[in-house]
Amino acid sequence: MEQALVAEATDAPRTADIAFERLYRSSRDDVYAYVASLLRDALAAEEVTAAAFERAYRKRNRFDPERGEPRAWLFGIARNAALDELRRRGRQAELTAEPADAETFGGHGDDHSERRLVVSEALERLEPGERELIALKFFAGLENREIARVLGIGESNAGTKLHRAMTKLREACDGNA
Amino acid sequence: METPREDRLAADLQALRPTPRPEFAAELDQRAAAGFPRRTHWRWTPFERLRAIRPHKLLIPAGGFAVLAIAIATAVTMSSENNDSANLAVLQPGEEIQKSNQATPSTDQGRSGSASAEYSNVVPMASSAAGSSAAGVEYEESTRAAHGPATLAAEPNPDRRSVERSAELVLAAAPGDVGDDSAKVFEAVHAHDGIVMSSSTREGKPGEAAARFELLIPSAQLGGALAALSAIDEVRTRHEATDDITAPTVATGELLHDSQARIDSLLAQLEGAESESEREAVEAELAQERRHRAVLRGQLQHLERRADYSRVLVRIETGGAEAPSEGGTWGVGDALDDAGKILAVAAAVTVVALAILGPIALIALLAWLTQRAWVRRERRRVLS
Q1: CB contact burial A123-147 (16+ within 10 A = b; e otherwise)
Q2: Is B317 helix (H, G, I), strand (E, B) or coil?
Q3: What part of B 1-60 touches A (C-beta under 8 Å)?
Q4: Residue of B339, B148, B112 whose CA lies nearest to B260
Q5: What is the rounded CA–CA span in Å between residue A15 and residue A5?
Q6: How far is it, in rounded angstroms, from Cα A60 to Cα B335?
Q7: Which of A17, A32, A132 lies at the smallest CB-CB distance from B20?
Q8: Cβ contact (<8 Å) for B28 and A53?
């Protein structure tokens, strides 16, 4: 569906605008979630998300559907913008949006919030690259082939890395529990 | 097939997913609806700003810059071409002037010829060295009495610049007009009290028919004479040069003054000579000094003539790309010639522009590739 939308986008400026509008609607929250997980700063994430969409909008006529899915293209732009922001700050990438505590996830004593706190702490212990993979998969909701396109690696490689990251996360959760 | 445990982990991760503030989402929606207008506070690098400009918006300034660059390059090229031709013109008259100097009428050197005769008529020469040396003591005394030493020395005023001028004029004429143009050259020279040192005229086909004149024009009338000569036919090249000869003129004048003072002294000694042998010795020295004075006087007069009269070389040429056709009309051949020249200039300008822009573009490309590689490396480092 999205492939078809962007294919239309190359036909005429007006069609490209409509296709981009649809891409924006379907990806806005996903891009924010991914960028926020990289930056760990809500305000900066808003700034970078807006900039990423702005850049993508300016480049919309240059998008080549043969080089990948539109979401992968959009997340590639968002990733570069977020990494540039991190470079500017000189900070290490952090995958968790906020320092997590039990209140963040539903209050004291709740079994779900307890478990999510454990998951959040386990995420903190992963390598930045592993946290990014998980963010792309579960925060942004990308398919493995889209993740591979965003990171510039092969699809099977992306799947393998994601599997390892999830295994480490599970082990970390078990260690925390 | 994911296990329930994996499903639960995935669900927990999705629950941890950051969500945008509703205010931000609404603001972004508005910006999306407006086509993402540019925000002034966004921290873009200059490179990003340049890239953000749409290509068609860059076309007009880039085109303007290119036209300006080509115009400047054309002007520089044309200017350098003119300078080259001017330099050539400088060399040619220089050679001619040197030759002419050898032929300069000078009674001191005993040269003769029609040109010398004409020159002598216009520029009355002072008494020759031989004549003055033949004169006796009485002549010297009478001269001194009549004019005084200052007049005899004819010293140049150091405050007045002595400048030698020369000019070369090349006229383009149709073969049938060479004769008429030559007659007009004579008229112009005589109208300005000038002298024709030499002239030659040759009839024939285009390229063969030509005329050449070596002229002496009073420096005071050089401007008017050149204007009159330039009006005869189409001017192909015109060059004027000046040479400041104040220093040698003043130096020669001072030497002449010293020589005259020495002669005066010797004459006084001669009057007071008591013996025949002493008188003969003084007379011999006096004769030698008079010869020296004559040489100096000749040199000074020659310098003064160089300042008073300007050498002008006039050539009338036919044929060549710039020669006008019969009757002065502009034909198809002229148009093709002009078009060829314009194309040649345009090609030269293009080559020059490419020679300049090529390395710049290469450097810019390398800089862009380096910057891109560096940015990618830095992005990888951020997550490593």
Answers
A1: beebebebbbbbbbbbbbbbebbbb
A2: strand
A3: 5-6, 8-10, 12-21, 24-25, 28-29, 31-32, 35-36, 38-39, 42-43, 52, 54
A4: B148
A5: 9
A6: 51
A7: A32
A8: yes
B356-374 pLDDT, tens digit per residue, is 889 899 999 999 999 989 8
What's residue A104's pLDDT?
A: 41
Beta bridge mates, B313: B168, B214
Asked casually if ipTM beats, i.e. exceeds, 0.90, the reply is no
Q: How many CB atoms sit inside 10 A of residue B121's CB?
A: 10
B232-286 pLDDT, tens digit each: 988 888 888 888 888 999 999 999 999 999 999 999 988 888 888 888 999 999 9
Query: Cβ atoms within 10 A of the Cβ of B257, count?
Result: 18
What count of residues does chain A have?
177
Write down the residue that tokens 């400088």 correspond to: B90
Q: With a cut of 70, which residues of chain A have pLDDT below it?
A: 1-13, 91-111, 176-177
- Test mutation, A34, A40, A61, A83, chain B, max B CBs within 10 A: A83
**Lookup: tokens for A70:** 């539109």
Cβ(A91)–Cβ(A127) below 8 Å: no
Q: What angle do CA B147, B152, B155 make, to 5 degrees?
A: 125
Give contacts of A87 with chain B, Cβ < 8 Å: 378-379, 382
- HEC letters along A103-159: HHHCCCCCHHHHHHHHHHHHHHCCCHHHHHHHHHHHHCCCCHHHHHHHHCCCHHHHH
Give whole-number Cα distances, B370 to A32, A38, B55, B160, B366, in Å: 30, 26, 23, 67, 6
Shortest CA gap A95–chain B (Å): 10
Q: Least CB-CB distance to B20: which of A46, A58, A116?
A: A46
* Cβ–Cβ below 8 Å for A54 and B36: yes
pLDDT in tens, B181-236: 899 999 999 999 999 999 998 888 777 888 999 999 999 889 899 999 999 988 88
Q: What is the mean pLDDT of residues B38-56?
A: 60
Helix, strand, coil proportions of chain A in percent (round to 5)?
80, 0, 20
pTM of the entire structure? 0.46
- Confidence at residue B115, expressed as pLDDT on a 0 to 100 scale: 36
**Residue of B249, B289, B298, B251 lying closest to B140 (CA atoms):** B289
Give the distance from CA B377 to its chain's centroid. Answer: 57
Phi–psi pair at A28, nearest 5 degrees: -55, -55
Could you tell me where the DSSP H helices lie in B106-221? 114-122, 129-134, 137-153, 178-191
Strands B163-172 and B309-317, sheet pairing: parallel
Distance, CA of B223 to CA of B242 (rounded, Å)? 13
